[in-house]
Write a structure and sequence with these properties.
four-stranded mixed beta sheet; alpha+beta; globular; 128 residues; 3 helices
Length: 128
């Protein structure tokens, strides 16, 4: 099996807006692949217990990466989606120069991210 990659957009309804932020999603065939990716981002980090992760990159419109192994359950997907939602809202607030954070955009972003991830998981045969 090879690594599955796709992109998601957490903005309203997952539309690919010009200038909108996105995440790259990597799904490795094994847990070892996830841990190796984590070590690349965090050479001194505690990688042995990592099951999945979301890493903020803030590289232009690329907000970050969300990394899972095959066989990931919905709970882990939702957990990492919440990290991604917080990263997205922080990215969006900086872009719009808004001084405070409301909880509702985070909840909306989590819903959009989980929907986009679910579509990607089924589309790429990770979930059946």
């Amino acid at each position: 099996m090879k690594t599955v990659t796709f992109r998601i957009r957490p903005d309203k309804k997952g539309k690919w807006k010009r200038g909108g932020g996105y995440f790259d999603v990597w799904i490795f065939p094994t847990q070892k692949g996830v841990r190796n990716a984590y070590r690349n981002f965090n050479p001194r980090g505690q990688w042995r217990d990592v099951r999945a992760f979301c890493r903020r990159l803030n590289d232009g419109n690329l907000i970050g990466v969300i990394v899972y192994p095959r066989g990931t359950g919905a709970g882990v997907v939702a957990h990492e989606a919440t990290h991604a939602a917080v990263d997205f809202v922080a990215w969006d607030l900086r872009r719009r120069d808004v001084p405070s954070m409301d909880v509702e955009p985070i909840c909306q972003a989590v819903g959009n991210i989980v929907r986009e991830l679910t579509v990607g998981f089924y589309k790429h045969g990770v979930w059946k």
